[in-house]
């Protein structure tokens, strides 16, 4: 039996080797670089200890970007869960063309975030954008949708939520289909209204779906990158940057590889510190049936 | 009895508003595609209007996009990367998942957590380290190198999916095979893999889509124009040449670039969604 177990573990060797090379090495290397002052290409690397981390705490743009990343993470999670749950509840009803609707709402997930960002740029453009054209029909003056950093951030967050809402929708749909009809039927026979049935029967039984949806969306939102590149380019004046985007600019544009790595390390811990407790908190509310 | 009779009646009454809601959602999800197609048949002079159809359809944009060799090169490069990524990621992950699920160690229990931790590592934070590694391995501007990199990136997630499916296959099947003298690897390919057909097809499709749409790593690793993926080609066309932007032409290129993935989706949507539904219950 022991020999058998060793054989089973042998099967994981290719995966472990690949992960060690393409994930482990960059990870260790990235952490190492975060302790150096380095421009990313020269031979000249100077060890400066935790100075890069100290620098982050004095960097105004870092905090602004961190704030934006929170908007991306929590905002997208909120929007996607609301949209996903509503569409899942809708699609859980029987009506004609239900599968076609489901397919259309899931479609944007198939399209590259970068390309979708390019397309959605035509919507929020100041001159000749789709939204402003629509406002024009009602005689409303064009709106500069991405005028300030905050506005641009919210536009990117909504675009991201709109595109990837389907992931939540499917998670909730799977959850809803897994709830036996008799539970809701029983509650209804006991005289519960539709809102009560939803609040006290459906929602608690959906907790596993909610956990997956929230955790996936948080991680996805915190890491947002390509939609922002295509939609606002991080502007105006670096006002809608996410941490991912900031790291990329620091590395390739500002040539601060050491600082970029340090921000990356901080970002990982920020995601960790936020996501794990939320996961645990939701897990404790899980119901067995 | 009274309650039972009431329920279907209220359901029928509220049905019109399912349709209304569905139509609103569908329109909001089709509008971007419509705008893209509409812009793609306009000219630079008439592109200030995005919603009404143009008076004259300018098909010339499509002719130019199809004649653009970069587009076809982009398709070929994207297909090569996707194919290598799929084969690598699926085989390695499924094999490892089988090993992990059957060895019944602490790893099986903690694989969900490990997967989540790896997912939390921002891909871009690894950029500094990854770029350095790829330079050392001589894999900059190498399609194969990129496929190795993104295939490996997908291993944790794919493995996680497979583990939960392998666990649901009764171990008695393996034992029967092993009594018949089959080794672990043969058991995997003969007995286990056929049981995993559904999830494998789903993973193949999702890996293909992910690889096709990948933007970040190709953007930094493929700097030679001959190695551009289709996404990078579209990006280059949108950026314009010599500072001159031709948005309608870029839209036409974009529409052609999206076509394979949209066609794939149209034919397989039922399968893709059912697969996602299935794997999210696990």
Give an overview of the whole structure:
Chain A is globular. Chain A is 72% helix and 1% strand. Chain A has a two-stranded antiparallel ribbon. Chain A has a single domain, classed as MetI-like (MetI-like fold, Orthogonal Bundle), CATH 1.10.3720. Chain A has 289 residues and is mainly α. The N terminus of chain B is likely disordered. The two termini of chain B are 37 Å apart. The radius of gyration of chain B is 24 Å and the shape is globular. Chain B is 78% helix and 0% strand. Chain B is mainly α and 282 residues long. Chain B is built from 13 helices and no strands. In chain B, α2 runs antiparallel to α13, α3 packs across α13 and α7 runs antiparallel to α10. Chain B folds into 2 domains: 60 residues, no CATH class; 214 residues, MetI-like (MetI-like fold). Classes of the chains: A mainly alpha (289), B mainly alpha (282). At the A-B interface, α1, α2, α5, α6 and α7 of A face α2, α4, α5, α6 and α7 of B.
